[in-house]
């Protein structure tokens, strides 16, 4: 197949491109340095190729409190990106199936994190703007599919982790921040300070697992929204304890700053639809995935001296 990937230099985009290339597909991969998706017409240069798949992974966001500090910019930039990609898809690549990412923060607190609730209620205030840009992306997919007969798949992932995370100074998802801080504590004999009280709960999916599931689902599902999660969540204290075991750091030296931003208290996706679509799928156990990730961080990136 001929495939087109936006956000190709990101954590997920890089892994997907490597997998597609290994599977023998012809991949056209674009990142923000090569193609400014905020600009109308930025994708016109790629219109002469007839693509079978368009993977739209590009988004302007970061982990931590980034969404809290940039709500207006996030709305403008992500709406520009998504509108330009969907318009190009509709006009220039209508034969292609578009696969894109939603976000778990689009789900409203107090409602089950199930697909039928993706557009229901009000997202958490600190992530409100970004959540709605992802909701609007899904609305756009549905509208274009209804009017023009296009095909899409929108996947809502849990937090992704694994080897190969970015090292360009952006804020990190919580699991990489935990690993970096605990590695630094172990190396320099320092105490570790984590945000929140440690009882907030999170769900993780190993990057390679997600890519494999994405490729299976895109061949089976048309015009659907599907959660992709592990189906279980753990406290920050639990994750920290596992990382301490892997690094030899004393967990009694960890302190918690309850004044710092932590986002939602719980975030675990309802994966009943995923299990029905792929009943044989199995996720990599958390301890195994964390061991791989910690080894990669130790050897390659996120140096604990920073």
TrEMBL record:
Residues 3-223 form the NAD-dependent epimerase/dehydratase domain. Gene3D superfamilies: NAD(P)-binding Rossmann-like Domain, UDP-galactose 4-epimerase, domain 1. Pfam families: Epimerase. InterPro entries: Epimerase_deHydtase, NAD(P)-bd_dom_sf. It comes from the Bacteria. One of its GO terms (molecular function) is GDP-L-fucose synthase activity. This is GDP-L-fucose synthase. The lineage of its organism: Bacteria, Pseudomonadati, Pseudomonadota, Betaproteobacteria, Burkholderiales.
């Amino acid at each position: 197949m001929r495939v087109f990937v936006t956000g190709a230099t990101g954590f997920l985009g890089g892994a997907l491109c490597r997998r597609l290339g290994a599977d023998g597909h012809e991949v056209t991969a674009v990142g923000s340095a090569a193609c400014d998706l905020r600009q109308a017409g930025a994708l016109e240069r790629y219109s002469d190729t007839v693509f079978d798949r368009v993977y739209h992974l590009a988004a302007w966001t970061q982990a931590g409190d980034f969404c809290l500090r940039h709500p207006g910019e996030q709305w403008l930039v992500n709406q520009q990106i998504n509108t330009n990609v969907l318009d190009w898809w509709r006009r220039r690549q209508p034969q292609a199936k578009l696969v894109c990412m939603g976000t778990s923060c689009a789900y409203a607190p107090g409602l089950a994190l199930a697909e039928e609730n993706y557009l229901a209620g009000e997202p958490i205030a600190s992530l409100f703007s970004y959540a709605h840009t992802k909701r609007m992306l899904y609305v756009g997919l549905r509208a274009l599919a209804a009017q023009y007969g296009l095909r899409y798949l929108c996947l809502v992932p849990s937090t992704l982790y694994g080897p190969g995370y970015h090292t360009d100074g952006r804020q990190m998802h919580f699991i990489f921040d935990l690993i970096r801080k605990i590695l630094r504590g172990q190396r320099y004999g320092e105490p570790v300070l984590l945000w929140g009280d440690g009882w907030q709960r999170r769900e993780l999916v190993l990057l390679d697992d997600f890519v494999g599931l994405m490729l299976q689902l895109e061949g089976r599902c048309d015009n659907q929204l599907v959660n992709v999660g592990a189906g279980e969540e753990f406290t920050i204290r639990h994750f920290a304890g596992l990382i301490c075991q892997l690094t030899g750091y004393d967990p009694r030296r960890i302190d918690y700053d309850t004044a710092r931003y932590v986002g939602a208290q719980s975030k675990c996706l309802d994966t009943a639809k995923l299990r029905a679509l792929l009943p044989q799928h199995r996720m990599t156990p958390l301890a195994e995935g964390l061991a791989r990730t910690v080894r990669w961080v130790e050897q390659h990136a996120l140096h604990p001296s920073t």
